[in-house]
Amino acid sequence: MMRAVVLPGPVAAEDLRVSLVPVPEPPPGWIRIKVEAFGLNRSEYHLRAGLATGAVFPIVPGIEATGTVDLAPGGEFAVGQQVVAMMGGMGRAFDGGYAEYTVVPAGSVLPVKTSLDWATLGALPEMLQTAHGSLHTGLNIQSGQSLLIRGGTSSVGAAAAVLAKERGLTVFSTTRNPGRLETLRALGVDHPLVDDGNVAEQVRSVLPAGVDAALELVGTNTLPDSLKATRVHGTVCFTGMLSDTWTIPDFYPIDYLPNGVRLTAYGGESSDLPPEAFQHYVDLVAEGRLPIRIDRVFALDEIAEAHALMEAGGAVGKLVVRIE
């Protein structure tokens, strides 16, 4: 038996409980991971709150996990090997990472070698996958460009700023809280901005033509302003819904989109983050050259408190659960 968080259906954060359930068995092509840590993600709040579509209940939530290989029937990985897993249906189509053991398809697993502590490593997989995919698949960023990040103190926003600066971009990033501007500066952001609903005007006071690229992490409620902040032939990538607003009623493209501004989206899989890229980022974190902000580390038994903090938007950076 093992400890796991099992969702019977949508529940309030305070109703999350740890249960004893059987240790899962991996079929061929799947890997069993002994979970050491996992990061919390907004999509898991959506699942828990009944906002997600296509979810199967009861289910162990969690779209990512970090730990060691416990069993690999197909020999894809060695027992004891450090790995991370993410996406591919985790926590939606099949049981995810909120457990002492999780079973996932081999294709959702990335190997890693590091001396980072488990909590720090546990913060990285989905955060880096989303940031990397948004910047490279969604926006195709290039050195020397300018980038606006809408929702900059979120875990993905913070990671995107760091990765963009490493690539040589000029970064604008937003927060609704003036007290968090110094947090953005500490991440290397060139132009921290207070989101007053008119970020486009602030951006264009610095770059009259607008930014080359914008990463929208807040939702469709701020998307029109992010589009207005972007230059002609620039690109906006819609990735996040921190505001829980993700649809556009009566969408009329000619009226909605500024002339010549491109709108794309990113919602990718672990395959969008090559193993060598992930290892490179992990190495940079270990060397202190890639500052990743962890807001707080919880124990598994504190999952209700962790979810309440995530739902309230009270974290700056990543929330992590360490299983011991």
TrEMBL record:
Tree of life domain = Bacteria
* Gene3D superfamilies xrefs: Medium-chain alcohol dehydrogenases, catalytic domain (3.90.180.10), NAD(P)-binding Rossmann-like Domain (3.40.50.720)
> Which keywords has UniProt assigned to this entry?
NADP, Oxidoreductase
Question: InterPro entries in the record, alphabetically?
Answer: ADH-like_N, ER, GroES-like_sf, NAD(P)-bd_dom_sf
Q: Which ranges carry the Enoyl reductase (ER) domain?
A: 12-321
A Pfam family annotated for this UniProt entry: ADH_zinc_N_2
Q: Which PANTHER family match?
A: QUINONE OXIDOREDUCTASE PIG3 (PTHR48106:SF18), QUINONE OXIDOREDUCTASE PIG3-RELATED (PTHR48106)
Protein's name according to its UniProt entry:
Zinc-binding alcohol dehydrogenase family protein
Top-level taxonomy: Bacteria, Bacillati, Actinomycetota, Actinomycetes, Propionibacteriales
